[in-house]
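Translate structure to sequence.
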């Protein structure tokens, strides 16, 4: 007998939100390592903003490692730090922020 196909939810790893955030952060770190520090910094800030959005959108049992404290505190911390990093990188006038 063959078993019924598993639902998409059961096939995704439990920690997929953190994997997505870490993947974006790795891209940002690679940009920083290749002397594109402003673009990398913006990407790192975007990773934090993605973490905030995922924490806000997902129920607590699916947020995985993104759930550290209460939902409100996590969202405020992720979004506040993400905005700070992005704004700091964008407002520094020296260096390139072009994609490509």
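Result:
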């Amino acid at each position: 007998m063959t078993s019924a196909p598993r639902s998409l939810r059961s096939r995704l790893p439990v920690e997929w939100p953190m994997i997505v955030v870490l993947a974006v952060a790795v891209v940002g770190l690679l940009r920083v390592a290749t002397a594109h520090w402003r673009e990398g910094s913006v990407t790192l800030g975007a990773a934090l903003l993605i973490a905030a959005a995922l924490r806000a959108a997902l129920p607590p049992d699916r947020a995985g490692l993104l759930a550290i404290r209460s939902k409100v505190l996590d969202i405020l911390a992720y979004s506040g730090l993400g905005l700070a990093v992005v704004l700091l990188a964008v407002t520094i006038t020296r260096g390139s922020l072009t994609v490509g």
